[in-house]
Amino acid sequence: MTVWITLLAAGAASYLFRFGPASLVDRVQSLGRLQRAATYVVAVVFTAVAADALVARMGAGPGSMLAPLGAVAVGLVAARRLGSSTAAIAAGMPTLWALTAVLPR
Amino acid sequence: MLALPRPQPAGADAAGRRRRARLAPYGAGVRAMAPWLPGMAMYGLVVGVAAGRAGLPAGAGFAVAPLIYSGGAQVAAAGLLGAGAAPIVVVATVLAINARLVIYSAAAGPYWRGTPRWWRALAAYLLVDPSFAVGYDRYRLDEPDCRAAHAHYLGAGLVLFAVWMSACATGALAAGHLPESLQLGFVVPLFLVGEAERRITSPAARRACLVTAAVAAVGRLAPLHLGVLAAVVIGLAVALATTRDETADAPIAAVAPAGTAAGNETADPSPETQDTPR
Known about the structure:
Chain A has about 100 residues and is an all-alpha fold. Helices cover about 85% and strands about 0% of the residues of chain A.
């Protein structure tokens, strides 16, 4: 039940973000600070969620620690070189599988 | 014997032309959205798999997509709920990720002035990065008469919605049938890393993301997943503290799809973070 209520609350609040400013646009005079924050918010939030997921996945053994780290490093390089997050997946996943298979757990 | 074309009544012909003319902007919106769709379908599939693997109650994994309708926020919500995070943390994280929608809404608002309330309600629901990018381009071309642009926006937004929902549902359904050894859950952090990397286009953004990653890693020890929120707040504070005020009045700019990886969050409202392929 809590899951459903949380999802409904998150959905309703997200919708307010979409609908509210468009409806109140005449009263909104300055969005300067908001714009500055919005410039960084996606990169920062994605980094936080990815780092959290990465650390959650890492175990104590060399395989379970180094495989995710190596995969992210390779994915990062691929994304930087090709400017595409698909490249990060295409390069990172095989790296993860290979390191998981090779390194002891 | 030669078959002669059946003569059409002049009235029916004119009505057909009017109908085609009325539908043409919707079709143009669909065509304008087409380059985004392959990337969005793949991303939606990944998001669906993440929701399916999060261990949410039956139906909730599917409901995440229509309720929140924003890729990164869907992934975060499903992941945090699956990990047992507190509701306030889930809602706050979703809102942090979706904060940019406030900017999009404020930018689209002047063009939506005078439209019926139901139309604005629907248009607002469809407001995500690709629909904003495609719609905003057309609004700027068409102003001050935005009637065709409204249809263009709706056509683009609806086709995106259909593709996104199908992809998420397919991913959620497939999640249970895929072997654990594939470690498909790791696709999401990789995707997020790739998306974040594409947005790091300034020293301030780089500093912010480095600090954010460090705080989030250490913050795993914090209860209720509060480390993620703390990392976001501290990261944004670092970014804002180290940028000059020149960016304060940066105009909102629409962004074209970048390569094959059009995420749901692939348009940033500042020129500093536009998706210029590198």
